[in-house]
Amino acid sequence: MWPASVLNLLASGGDRPVFEDGDRVVTASRMYELIQRIAAGLRHRGFGPGRGLALRLGVDAEAFAATIAAFAVGTRVCGIPPGLTPAQLEHLLARDDAELIDDTAVAGLLDFPPSPVSAAGHPTDVARIIYTSGSTGQPKGCAQTYAAMSAAWAAHPDRWPPVIAELATRLDRYLVFGSLSSQVMLEYGILALTAGGTLVAAHPPAFPDAFVRHRATASVITVGKLHQLVRSQRADPVDLSGLKALMVSGSPLTAGRLREALDVLGPVVFHGYGQTETGMISMTFPGERLDTVGRPPSVNNLKINDGELYVRTPAQASSYWRDPEESVRIFTGGWIRTRDLARLDDDGYLHLLGRTRDVIIVQATLVHAGPIEHLLATDPAVAEAYVIARPDDDTGESVHAFVVPTPGETPDPARLRDLVRTTLGAPSTPTTVTVIDQVPLAPSGKPQKSALK
Which residue numbers delimit the AMP-binding enzyme C-terminal domain (predicted)? Predict the structure, then answer.
């Protein structure tokens, strides 16, 4: 049961370095001791199966140990997504019935003596709630059971699909940043440790300097950051000869942009496709079939209904936490509706064709257009509001708003942007707010948002 595989790996790792933070190097045995201490402290405070624990931690050895310890004692773990408003954080903690643990609290738990630790989670209990950004107004949580986490491939070399087996050979020094409780950051972190690599903390994760400074061989990167890295290397190149793998996360990456990245950075870009609800769906080898997102591993099942992709993976979430209405709509008969349009070609490669939902992906954060439009329309000066996505070299995609004024009123774009920022958070904030006389109409008479692009 998760995280037994990680505990066994660290318990038997001895003096092997597993985490590096500046001049500090933490061995496997020391990391295992940190987990034992924190787990003892959590148990002393009554944490175990059925209890909720919300983690808001930095990027250091103690944060990683606290994340694994929280799973080891069997709690329901959720990582706090960045950029939440105070109201969103309060809502999240109340809905999850979770206690917030920060770096100060973890430091206090380290005072407990180490004691034996094992995986105490129950298979059908929710192990992890992976929260979205809250772009719909409040964060939405994907609930993943201990059984599902145990079925994941990262900690088990015998389960690695060929592309993951190749990726694992390149994770000697895996650069970590942001939050170690992040789904993607933790998944590749466990893969790196299982492959014999070391997690290397970046403070801050400024690319490309962080790769050079930390001698990193691999990291996760958003589409926007990848574009910035390519531009930087063209204008003022640095020595990235040690870089072996960049796992692109979040926004769609066009074939042209992918080709440019490979030309500039070399065969290091692993381009894939996944969702919070499903985990990884498919991934390409560097330079493989640039017009696709790769071939799904054999353990993933895919089907296409009326053009929409449905997916079933061993480690998928089982529902949205305390949201039965949305769960019924998306989790259907063991399948997950991706709300993405796709096709599979004769060679089994997956092609993404568009979205059935009105969303913008900003720095790997899913932003829904509807809540932004509704919020903008609450301003007395706004009669109608429309939100679209545009490609953005810095963020992958960016939010752009168009507003039709109330007769006799003049909308204030700065005020409208502030309204969105304070209510829905930074990722939802429009890059531009444009005042228009009327929205273009389709032949049906309905608003034609595509014409605004």
Answer: 372-446
**Residue 337 to residues 304, 316, 333, 392, 434: CA-CA distances in angstroms?**
10, 12, 10, 27, 34
Task: Name the pairing type of β-strands 24-27 and 335-344.
Answer: unpaired
* Distance of alpha carbon 188 from alpha carbon 225, whole angstroms: 18
> Distance between CA atoms of 33 and 115, rounded to whole angstroms?
9
Q: What angle do CA 417, 422, 427 make, to 5 degrees?
A: 70
- Check if the beta carbon of residue 355 is closer than 8 Å to that of residue 449: no
Query: What would the two tokens of residue 70 be?
Result: 């929280």
Q: For the chain, what is the mean pLDDT?
A: 92
- The pTM of the full predicted model, rounded to 2 decimals, is 0.85
Q: Tokens at residue 46, please?
A: 């009554």
Q: What is the C-alpha to C-alpha distance for residues 162 and 155, in angstroms, rounded to an integer?
A: 15
The pLDDT tens digits of the residues spanning 192-244 come to 999 999 999 998 878 999 999 999 999 999 888 898 899 899 999 999 999 99
Cα gap 420→450, rounded to integer Å: 22
Q: How many CB atoms lie within 10 A of CB 23?
A: 5
Query: Pick from 324, 322, 317: which is nearest to 338 by CA?
Result: 317
**What are the residue ranges spanned by the domains of the chain?**
4-303+312-333, 359-452
d(CA 22, CA 451): 50
Evaluate whether the domain defined by 4-303+312-333 bears CATH number 3.40.50.12780: yes
CA distances from 355 to 73, 142, 328, 359, 361 (A): 39, 20, 20, 8, 11
How do beta strands 141-145 and 126-131 pair? antiparallel
The secondary structure of 27-74 as a DSSP string is EHHHHHHHHHHHHHHHHHTT-STT-EEEEE--SSHHHHHHHHHHHHTT
Domain 359-452 belongs in CATH node 3.30.300.30: yes
Q: Give the closest residue to 103 by CA, choosing from 58, 72, 70.
A: 58
Residues across the chain: 453
- One-letter amino acid identity for 147? A
